Amino acid sequence: QGKQKKARKYAVMKRMISLRDERINEKDRAKARVKKKEDPSAIKEREVPQHPSCLFFQYNTQLGPPYHILIDTNFINFSIKAKLDLVQSMMDCLYAKCIPCITDCVMGEIEKLGQKYRVALRIAKDPRFERLPCMHKGTYADDCLVQRVTQHKCYIVATVDKELKRRIRKIPGVPIMYISRHRYNIERMPDDYGAPRF
C-alpha cells in the first residue's frame, strides 16, 4: 500500500497570534480599544451624492445642438485609418452642429506619440476644435475625461477604447460616440439611466 499524497495548500501562511492575546506578556500586549458612546442628541451626517438637475426625467436635458464632443486620442487615430473627416462625420451622425472639444492632456498624449502621429496632431490643432484647459498633473487622458463628464453632463464622449467606454457607461446621461463600419455611431444608454433621445 502506497502512501497517499496530500495536495499542498496554495499560499499557506503561518498563523500569528493577536497582539491582544493573553499569552503575550502584559507590558507587550496591545491595549483593547474602548468604544466611544454615541451621543443621541448629536446630528448624524450622511453623505448622499446629489443628482444633477439636468437628469430630471428620463433623459439628459443639457444635451442639445450644438453638441460638444470630447475626443479621445485613439478616436482621432481610428478616424484617420477609416479615412473619415472628423467634424463632417460627426454632423452626419447627429444631424446637427457639433463642436469637437480636445483637452490639454489628450493633446499631450498625441504629442508624446511622436512623428508617426503627426497627421493626428495636425488634425487636433484644427481651429474648429475647442481647446479645454486641464488643471491636473500628468497627461493620462482617461481619468481627465471621466472626471470632466461626471462634473458636466453636457458632453458626448468620442472614444474607441473599451476600458474608457466601460467606465463612462456607469455615468448616467453620457452618450458614447464610436466608429464601426467606416462611420460614426452613437451608443445610447437605457432610458432609466438618463439617455438622450436623438
TrEMBL record:
The keyword rRNA processing applies. Its main location: nucleus. GO terms for biological process: ribosomal small subunit biogenesis; rRNA processing. SUPFAM superfamilies: PIN domain-like (SSF88723). It is found in: Nucleus, Nucleolus. SMART domains: PINc (SM00670). Part of the small subunit (SSU) processome, composed of more than 70 proteins and the RNA chaperone small nucleolar RNA (snoRNA) U3. PANTHER family: RRNA-PROCESSING PROTEIN UTP23 HOMOLOG (PTHR12416). This is rRNA-processing protein FCF1 homolog.
